[in-house]
């Protein structure tokens, strides 16, 4: 496990501009956010909560004086640092699996040396050590995924493998949940076998309220009985704590909409009913440009091997006014940029069957995150993920400026760039990356129109004269049936295809001079538009190759949606464009270099991106899972040449990036902000002072 690269997510400049009531609102919302920490631990691994308790107990045992504890244990300072690095990486990833990639990591310090540290601590630390020392160091599991000997998932409890039984039970549960109108995002499945003849399948739902409802019994051909039930009360302690902090935040809301928004959120956490959660998200979308922005709930399905159940996350942030102004300018002009996408057939009014007639600009803001409780701290997000809300109400785009700042110092994949170009690549990368992320969020996730039978017999297109599929020249044969969603239809590939399509939109539009001018890049500037475009195509290559870090050659599975997307884009460009890229690989020297032919970007690169983008877009809009899976899984297959590349990529893997986040405290009715140094010790201290029960 490599030592981490640590960045401080500073928020003081924005926080200090808030008035006293806004600071109180931000404080209580942040406390609510951090109260969801144990939910995420519980969704990651059986041992994660106890490892957290062990780290925090060890901190308080020595009052944060790690050197004194190491001296007592006669532990070398380098060995101490190995443990502190592990603790900081664990805390920042909210578990013992990397948030990006889902691979398990174990301490670099030996079990015996760590035991010496424990021996000098309290009895409670020793008790925790006894609980976690084996699973903390144990491999397998190697990663998160379908239950098997090598992978594990806390979304599916009681399953030893991802074979037919697991798939059958998951399909049965999905059918029952559709009948009962239970959405899957805040659920888990649990299988128990109280006797040889009886199996209990529980659909477990997150809520404060506890209840067990018997759905029915199913008898199979062997005469065994399967008892189906719905159980509420998962994560009840944490959800109750969140609601208590939200109660306090209600005293300081800025308007009635925020009050109603939080009340709906509390109802969803109390009952587990996601209809209330969707009401919360609808109001959230309409709450434009709030002084304090927040995101709560079971949001992203990246870690569910079936792609439908979601990890909890909670974010609180404060707008960065100067950066937000640029984003609002882009949002204002975005409708005309939509017309340049490859499936749009008109400039206004009727843009064809696969795009909305008008792109309504979303609320687009740049914020400094105050509390980002998630296994991955993304540089930008686009929410909500519910298609009906997005199509009928809208969505929000958020860029996290203090997180984005870290990209200025992270030249990821730099070794793949030829040495004469490395310095200029480092200089231009943050500029190009920022614009790419922004376009990904606003136009990547914000465009498109799904063909659907919205309710039985009611279509949003003419089913007797369906739109023409641009690839076959024939009328489309598939669309979304009543109640179907994007994630439900596309299941395990839904998130990676969605991210791939969004990345393609950003890359395809990137060279537009009007877009670049909004961000201040013109021919008169120090950084020229052509330089940024060239840098982007280098990033497409280096990110594509770096994506192989998150491919597991043992299970032959991708463990991160964005990585699979980046590799697929690069593979498509290699196959579909002429002389755009050259990959030079020297396995003996452990060298991997990629070069871009600048003269081929316009004639070859952009058209190739457009062809891939159009395919994914049409598959997505028409619910054509069969064609999409065939196309995408072929692109993301890893052959022997790519495995050779992977060996070099893994050997030269960038150190994990982790983040030191602030806390707030109330003293004499005044909210104080405390930031921590970007070191492993600072990260551990910040978590110890969050007072997570």
Automatic annotation (TrEMBL):
Domain of life assignment: Eukaryota
Cofactor: how and how many bound: Binds 1 zinc ion per subunit.
InterPro entries: Dipeptidyl-peptase3, Peptidase_M49
Required co-factors: Zn(2+)
Group of enzyme by EC: hydrolase
Reaction it catalyzes: Release of an N-terminal dipeptide from a peptide comprising four or more residues, with broad specificity. Also acts on dipeptidyl 2-naphthylamides
EC number: 3.4.14.4
Presence of keyword Hydrolase: yes
Subcellular location as annotated: Cytoplasm
Keywords, ordered alphabetically: Aminopeptidase, Cytoplasm, Hydrolase, Metal-binding, Metalloprotease, Protease, Zinc
Family stated for the protein in its record: Belongs to the peptidase M49 family.
Protein name: Dipeptidyl peptidase 3
Source organism (scientific name): Aspergillus lucknowensis
């Amino acid at each position: 496990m490599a030592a981490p690269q640590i960045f401080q997510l500073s928020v003081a400049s924005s926080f200090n501009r808030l008035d006293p009531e806004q600071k109180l609102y931000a404080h209580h919302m942040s406390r609510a956010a951090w109260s969801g920490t144990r939910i995420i631990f519980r969704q990651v691994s059986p041992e994660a909560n106890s490892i957290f308790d062990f780290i925090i107990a060890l901190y308080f045992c020595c009052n944060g004086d790690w050197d004194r504890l190491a001296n007592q244990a006669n532990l070398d300072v380098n060995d101490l640092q190995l443990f502190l690095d592990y603790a900081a990486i664990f805390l920042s990833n909210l578990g013992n699996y990397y948030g990006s990639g889902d691979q398990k990591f174990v301490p670099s310090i030996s079990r015996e040396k760590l035991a010496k540290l424990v021996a000098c601590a309290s009895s409670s630390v020793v008790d925790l050590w006894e609980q976690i020392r084996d699973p903390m160091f144990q491999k397998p599991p190697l990663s998160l995924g379908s239950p098997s000997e090598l992978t594990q998932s806390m979304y599916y409890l009681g399953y030893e493998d991802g074979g037919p039984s697991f798939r059958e039970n998951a399909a049965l549960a999905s059918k029952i949940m559709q009948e009962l109108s239970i959405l899957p995002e805040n659920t888990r499945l649990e299988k128990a076998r109280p006797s040889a003849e009886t199996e209990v399948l529980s659909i477990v739902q997150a809520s404060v309220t506890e209840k067990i409802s018997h759905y029915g019994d199913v008898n199979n051909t062997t005469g065994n009985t399967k008892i189906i039930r719905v159980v509420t009360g998962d994560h009840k302690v944490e959800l109750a704590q969140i609601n208590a902090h939200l109660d306090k935040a209600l005293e300081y809301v800025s308007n009635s909409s925020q009050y109603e928004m939080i009340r709906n959120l509390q109802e969803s956490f109390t009952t587990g009913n996601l209809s209330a959660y969707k009401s919360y998200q609808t109001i959230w979308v309409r709450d434009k440009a709030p002084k304090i922005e927040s995101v709560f709930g079971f949001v992203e399905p990246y870690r569910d091997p079936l792609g439908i159940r979601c990890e909890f996350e909670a974010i609180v942030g404060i707008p960065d006014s100067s950066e937000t102004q640029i984003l609002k300018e882009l949002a204002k002009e975005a409708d005309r940029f939509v017309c340049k996408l490859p499936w749009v057939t008109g400039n206004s009014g009727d843009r064809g069957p696969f795009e909305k007639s008008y792109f309504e600009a979303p609320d687009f803001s740049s914020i400094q995150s105050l509390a980002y409780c998630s296994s991955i701290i993304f540089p930008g997000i686009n929410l909500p993920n519910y298609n009906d809300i997005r199509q009928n109400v809208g969505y929000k785009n958020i860029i996290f400026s203090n997180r984005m700042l870290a990209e200025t110092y992270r030249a990821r994949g730099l070794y793949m760039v030829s040495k004469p170009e490395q310095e200029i690549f480092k200089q231009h990368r943050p500029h190009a990356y920022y614009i790419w992320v922004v376009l990904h969020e606003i136009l990547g996730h914000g465009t498109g129109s799904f063909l659907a039978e919205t309710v039985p017999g009611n279509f949003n297109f003419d089913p007797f004269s369906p739109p023409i599929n641009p690839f076959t020249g024939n009328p489309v044969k598939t669309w979304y049936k009543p109640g179907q969603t994007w994630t439900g239809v596309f299941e395990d590939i839904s998130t990676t295809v969605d991210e791939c399509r969004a990345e393609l939109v950003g890359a395809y539009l990137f060279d537009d001079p009007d877009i670049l001018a909004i961000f201040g890049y013109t021919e008169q500037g120090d950084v020229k538009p052509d330089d940024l475009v060239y840098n982007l195509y280098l990033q497409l290559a280096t990110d594509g190759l770096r994506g192989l870090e998150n491919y597991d050659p043992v299970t032959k599975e991708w463990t991160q949606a964005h990585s699979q997307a980046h590799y697929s884009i690069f593979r498509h460009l290699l196959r579909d464009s002429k002389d755009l890229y050259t990959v030079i690989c020297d396995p003996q020297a452990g060298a991997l270099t990629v070069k871009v032919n600048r003269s081929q970007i316009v004639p070859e690169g952009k058209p190739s991106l457009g062809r891939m983008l159009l395919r994914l877009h049409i598959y997505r809009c028409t619910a054509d899972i069969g064609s999409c899976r065939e196309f995408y899984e072929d692109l993301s297959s890893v052959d022997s040449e790519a495995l050779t590349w992977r060996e070099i990529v893994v050997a030269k893997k960038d150190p994990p990036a982790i983040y030191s986040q602030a806390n707030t405290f109330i003293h004499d009715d005044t909210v104080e902000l405390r930031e921590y140094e970007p070191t492993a010790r600072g990260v551990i201290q910040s978590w110890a002072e969050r007072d997570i029960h």
